[in-house]
Amino acid sequence: MKFRTVVEPPEPMRGLEVPPAVVEALGGGARPPVTITVNGHSWRSRVAIMRGRHLLGLSNANRQAAGVTVGEEVEVDVELDTEPRVAVEPADFADALAADPLARAAYDNLTDSRKREHVRAIESAKRPETRKRRIDQAIATLRAR
C-alpha cells in the first residue's frame, strides 16, 4: 500500500505517520510487522502507536539510505511482512550453544527480538577476544535462566 507523509523529526520517536486506514487495510492488527520502502530503500519494522498515532520509526541510517530529510514529503510503500523474523546465529555462537544443552534450550525459548540482541552484541564486536568474551557472557546468561 502506498501513501504520502512527511518525514518527522526523530524526537521523541517519530518518523513516518501511517494513516489508520492503511494500518487497517494491512490486516495485521494494530501493530503489524511491515516492510517499508522509501525511494527504493527497504527495511523491516513494525507499526508503533504513540499518543494515538500510527508511526514507522525512521532511523538516521534509513533516512540517509533513502535520501530523505526531515520535513520532506515522501511516498511510502508499506506491506505486511509475513516472513518469520529469525536471528541467524553466527557459527561460533552456534557451536557454543551446541556444546551447552542448557544454554541452547534457554536460547531456543527466547523471543526473536531477544535472540537478535544476543546475535547483535556478538556480531558488533570488533576484536576476536571481545567476540569470544561476549559469546561466553551470553552462554553464562542463558545458563542462569
TrEMBL record:
Organism (species): Asanoa iriomotensis
Superkingdom of origin organism: Bacteria
Entries under Pfam families matching the protein: DUF1905, OmdA
Protein name: DUF1905 domain-containing protein
InterPro entries in alphabetical order: AF2212/PG0164-like_sf, DUF1905
